[in-house]
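call fold(seq) -> tokens
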Amino acid sequence: MVFKISKTLLFASVVLHLFSCVGPKLSEGDENIIGNKLENVSSLKTTSGGDSAAVVLFEPLVQKIYQFNLDQMSLVRALNVLNLNQPHYVLHDTVGNYIVDLSVKHISIFDKNSNPQHNPIRFFGKPLSAAFRPELGLLVMYDDLQTAGIVQMNSNGVVQKSAVFGSIVSNDQTIAAGDLLEDGNLVLALSDNSLAEINIAQSLTQNNWSSLVQSTGLSEINWVAPVPSKPRLIFIKSKNQVSLYDLDSHSVISSVAVTGEIEKYSKSFNPHILERVDNHTLKLIYTNGTAIQTRVLNRKNKTILTSDLDLTQNMWSFVEVPAFGVDSYSNNLNIYKYNREIVRYRISDMAALQSKAIPDRAQVKLANDYLFCLFSSDLGYASKNSILDDTVNVIRNFNVKNF
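ret:
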């Protein structure tokens, strides 16, 4: 009898341990990173907010990087990668048509002619995130060992300069969060809650951080985001507060208190944060470039997986699932692949514009007007699904020649 009870207790403890391992962990979300979390499918949006006609992805089944033309629904090229049987993350410059491939301890950059440049920087961790400004030819990679690698490229993706930097930036203060500004400087929140504006060109020349540091008066900064078309303003999440901060005046020009838990951080396209006020209420917090703004939604027992705000188009789009407690800290709609729905509102008056189901089991990437869906298939199967109507375009059998 004692043996049976012991076995039962052991089983219960194992089950509890497993559930604790798969539950939401804030450290796995979008806090305390530089730029955005990396994914194995490139963004379908340009830095100006428009849709891209190309998508790049790592196909784990055949261990290759594929580039597709989504206007013609055709395969453009297939690239062999190093570091096989490891997760790979990709970035793509739609203008220069070059591809960045990141994996554990490894980076490759394929120029527009598919010529690889392996390891222009040396790092020894797992890539977590990247700030990528292809229009400036700048990439800042951040790994789980708090190493920051900077690569400067020309318009064709040929590496011009590169360097690796440690986490200590100024006066023994370390990186808490950061992102690239529109002018090519890097802004970093530091462990003492100051902000360091990094001159990338000087840092690459002297192989050391070149920074101007200013105090903020904030506490526990864990997320910063540039404000589009406002190059000297940044959106900041700190302890119990979201702020709009002016780098020139060294001051907070607008703020709002946060009393609930943060459910989502997003830099697509205008930076914004979703606060879970209670089980019934979700608050959108964003800036119009002058002040902090909010919108409130009743979202009982629903979890938003990814969120996109475009103030120019007066549109807020998000993907949600009818389940509460899904790990929602990362802005990634592929955390959960069933019963997903894209919902779209006009942000000015919160009029609903669209509600549409997303195919189950597909790995999905969101654009303004369509979804790119990659399905698990030995032969290769993907689709481009219009958000505006029921149009679906398909590409098949792109894996065939690799078997």
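The two ends are 56 Å apart (CA to CA).
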